[in-house]
Design brief:
Elements (H helix, E strand, L loop, with lengths): L1 H18 L11 E7 L2 H9 L6 E3 L8 E7 L1 H13 L3 E6 L2 H7 L16 H14 L3 E8 L5 E7 L6 E7 L6 H16 L3 H9 E6 L4 H9 L10 E6 L2 E4 L35 H11 L6 E9 L3 E4 L12 H19 L4 E4 H4 L7 H7 L5 E7 L14 H21 L5
Parallel strand pairs: 7-8, 7-11, 11-14, 12-13
Antiparallel strand pairs: 1-3, 1-4, 2-3, 5-6, 6-8, 9-10, 12-14
Length: 422
């Protein structure tokens, strides 16, 4: 009898443990460094560092003569700094205590939807549903489901037949919380603003908004691992830590897929673009949705990411090949940068992503341009230029939303002048 009671008790503990959500990873006293790589010799040595110590690279490694952000825990900070000094690599400490910074942006799950804090997926989706129920000019659909079964929602704002459309896509990379925060800010402006210019833009253009392309990864960043980038499908590979999860979905589109990028061959790394293109159901849902509209209806496609304050144009796979209407797109991107500058002085640099940022292939903007023939596509990399990087404090969300909305207003006006919507 006692044995049975003990067995039941142990089984109850096992079930309880299995039912609990995993504890979120903490980053107490973790530092974020910015390392300045001046030449190819330094670059080759820098690439090897993650093989010998536990560090977390926050960007694809591309060329020399640029900086890279790295998270390092307390146990490796001394050896990391000594190695950089030995290699004559200059560095700054961007963030002294990452957890302290993250705690400043901690969210209240009971707080109403606003743009003063970062919200979890349920809060974002509840707000979207409320807007859809309140406005008959919104057509709201679930375009597909993620690997773990979460809906991928779209909102199409259309007040007049015959309009051309602009697509806005957010949070394909899970850790970039400012992306969906900005996209929902823009959507709120399009629906609820009294600004006459915004009202005009909603009358003369259709707007298709996809605020959350990576719901599984986004939930994972809130509940388990703030630094997660990919989706959450087991990708069939393992390493010393166990099964590997996820595909970088902005490397999985079938346009020059796998032609360029950092560490593409490592399926357990943050930038793995898959064994072949178009493997992810989230990406297929997006492509099917975009393809469901008549050719020529969608005239602009804008993907929102973080960070660096860029308007990145096609192409990403090359720094020597440019689209036929590249000069036209540059003028439109310049209008965005000029509009965004006026609000808070934020400077956005614009140009081909392979030229300005780093060479990488399989991105949404390149697929939208190269496969769907949408005449203006871009990736907008939001604030900032490196002070906080991916961990932008929540008290800057509204400012980002305001400056991007102003930039967007200017962009649409210029795109119309350039004949994009003809």
């Amino acid at each position: 009898m006692k044995v049975s009671v003990l067995v039941v008790a142990l089984l109850s503990l096992v079930v309880l443990a299995m039912s609990r959500k995993p504890m979120a990873t903490r980053y107490d006293n973790f530092k974020v460094y910015k390392a300045f790589i001046k030449d190819n010799e330094q670059l080759e040595e820098f690439k090897k560092m993650h093989q010998h110590m536990e560090i977390h690279l926050l960007q694809d490694i591309g060329d020399a003569n640029r900086s890279y952000d790295v998270i390092v825990g307390p146990a490796y900070q001394d050896i990391f700094e000594r190695t950089l000094n030995l290699l004559d690599i200059k560095f700054d400490v961007m963030i002294e205590d990452l957890q302290a910074l993250l705690d400043e942006s901690a969210y209240d799950p009971d707080a109403p939807m606003d743009w003063e804090t970062y919200h979890p997926l349920d809060k974002i989706y509840d707000w979207v549903d409320e807007q859809c129920a309140a406005h008959d000019y919104l057509e709201c659909k679930v375009i597909g489901h993620s690997y773990e079964g979460r809906p991928i929602k779209s909102i199409r704002l259309s007040k007049r037949e015959g309009n051309k459309a602009i697509v806005i896509e957010g949070n394909i990379h899970a850790m970039e919380w400012i992306s969906s925060a900005t996209v929902t800010f823009i959507l709120n402006q399009l629906i609820n603003s009294n600004d006459k210019e915004i009202q005009r833009l909603t009358e003369e253009y259709d707007w298709i908004v996809l605020p959350m392309m990576n719901p599984d990864g986004f939930v994972y960043t809130h509940e388990v691992e703030r630094l997660w980038r990919k989706n959450r499908r087991p990708n069939g590979f393992t390493n010393k830590t166990g099964p590997c999860y996820g595909i970088d979905m902005n490397r999985n589109f079938d346009f020059h897929w796998n032609g360029a990028g950092w560490n593409l061959e490592d399926p357990c790394d943050h930038w793995f673009g898959g064994e072949k293109p178009n493997t992810e159901i989230e990406i297929l849902a997006l492509q099917d949705f975009v393809s469901s509209f008549d050719d020529g209806y969608i005239r602009a496609y804008m993907a929102f990411h973080a960070y660096g304050q860029y308007v990145l144009l096609p192409y990403g796979h090359s720094n020597t090949e440019f689209p036929p209407n590249y000069d036209q797109m540059m003028r439109i991107a310049a209008a965005f940068a000029d509009g965004a500058l006026d609000s808070y002085g934020s400077v956005f640099t614009y140009g081909a992503s392979g030229l300005l940022n780093y060479v990488v292939s399989g991105a949404a903007k390149d697929w939208a341009y190269g496969v769907k023939n949408i005449p203006f596509t871009c990736t907008v990399e939001l604030r900032d230029k490196g002070t906080f990087g991916f961990f932008l404090p929540s008290n800057q969300i509204t400012e980002v939303g305001v400056e991007v909305t102003e930039g967007l207003k200017s962009l649409v006006v210029k795109a119309a002048e350039e004949g994009i919507f003809d």
